[in-house]
Amino acid sequence: MVEAVSPRNLNVSFLAYSPLAGGALTGKYLNPKKIKDTYRMRRYVGYMHRYISPPAMAATKRYQEIADSLVVPLTPMALAWVYSRPFVTSTVIGATDLKQLDDNVHSLNMLLSEEALSLINEAYKLHLDPTKGSFPVVDPYLDDMDPSMLPWGARDIDVDPELDMLINYRLASTLPPKS
């Protein structure tokens, strides 16, 4: 979406939906064996499995390392980064308790230093779109899974492959050629 909302293209405001990646950017899914039964990742197996895919977990671990090095909690840091984007005008957040709501609200006033922004932007570029692709559905509590019990089968598939093709073509035309 960044390319579409940028000043050189549509120059429109952006309402960030799920800025914490379904809770993944709170760090609570970094150890899949500790996912509580009440978390949506556990309650709806396959619903958001892309956030515990290997590329997404690597990205979340890097963001957690950055937060730890800055001595700030991951959740407010992640939200503050989203709010630092010039095209973001608001976010759609979710909170299941007052602690989560408190974290979300406090992030509105959290200013990230240039050093923090640089570290986060570097990680962002390194882990660009880590949830895109097809990943096996994983329930860390089960050894085998019946694909018929999942919302869309055993693999996450693109909803609109033609749109993905167009986006990839557009991105490929703006990137330097691979050597």
How would you describe this structure to a colleague?
This protein is mainly α and 179 residues long. It has a single domain, classed as TIM Barrel. It has seven helices and two strands. The chain has helices at residues 2-5, 40-43, 54-70, 74-84, 98-107, 114-126, 161-174; strands spanning 14-17, 88-92. A two-stranded parallel ribbon has the order 1-2. α3 (54-70) packs antiparallel against α6 and α4 (74-84) crosses α5. The relative contact order is 0.15. The model is unreliable at 149-158 (pLDDT under 50).
- Number of helical regions: 7
What general outline do the C-alpha atoms trace?
A: globular
Corresponding CATH architecture: Alpha-Beta Barrel
For the CA atoms, what is the radius of gyration? Answer: 17 Å
- How many distinct folded domains? 1
- Identify low-pLDDT runs: 149-158
Main sheet record: 2 strands, parallel
Mean pLDDT: 78
Write a short abstract of this structure.
By secondary structure, this protein is mainly alpha-helical.
Descriptive labels:
179 residues; mainly alpha; TIM Barrel; 7 helices; 41% helix
Topology:
Elements (H helix, E strand, L loop, with lengths): L1 H4 L8 E4 L22 H4 L10 H17 L3 H11 L3 E5 L5 H10 L6 H13 L34 H14 L5
Parallel strand pairs: 1-2
Helix pairs in contact: 3-6, 4-5
